[in-house]
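seq:
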Amino acid sequence: MTPTLDQLQEAQTALGAPLFSDLPGDIAISFEFFPPKSDKMADTLWKSVETLAPLGPRFISVTYGAGGTTRERTHQQVVRINQETGIPAAAHLTCVNATREEVDAVARHYWQSGIRHIVALRGDPPEGAGHYTPHPGGYANAVELIAGLKQVADFEISVAAYPEVHPDSPDAQADIENLKAKFDAGATRAITQFFFDPECFFRFRDKAAAAGIDAEIVPGVMPVMSFAAVQRMSGMCGTAIPAWMEGLFDGLDERPAARQLVSATIAAELCRKLYAGGVRDFHFYTLNRAELSYAICHMLGKRPVSENRQ
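struct:
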């Protein structure tokens, strides 16, 4: 995709001025949480939701454990967010360890509870399973799940995209074809796996456009809470970690405040480069912690919706 004149001017501004100077806050944001496992974690989750809600996210999503292991907790949190914040909530739903009838019943329950947005995913194998195997009588993959959800109700549907190739995919082209099939089945938007190289996202966006995909592809951004944890997650999902990143986090294991500053800087710089490339929609993997995502949105010019910017 050839950069537009506006994008070139924006890139020049990014290079010629302080990195986050006078951004207008013309971005749309969304946040992802995971369901809590204890009352204390539930308190942390809700405080994070309350911190981020004033920024006016277009939706907040809650993940879903492998095999439906967090089904009830996911439902509780999604309904509470929807009812108490007024922000649309999205429930993750997977194909794992469930028949079509069981998945459809969960989807109907969400619709009856006022949830209109589903994040539809194939899902990871249950713990201990070496690889994904479709459940007998279940949806085989995300494409089938999307089509099934559309038969249940007219859900808004977000799906996953993989700029660095899904671990189970034979190659990048197969990933693009699968993404197109998801949109053809009725998906509304795609949210990418987290990544650390903006060019990775731009290349993926261009390949998708070349394949005839003109739907929304939103970059997923994950501020680093723990470098060791990011290494584990990256290994599972195929995300490349730049060589320079390990050096930046070296020696910060026992200095959480300093680690947060480094993490926010890295993630904000990634977002600023994405912004310079024309991106105006961002999805943040919060890991149920608000401050890093809040700081990054603030640096991108986002303010609480009640504030009047002069």
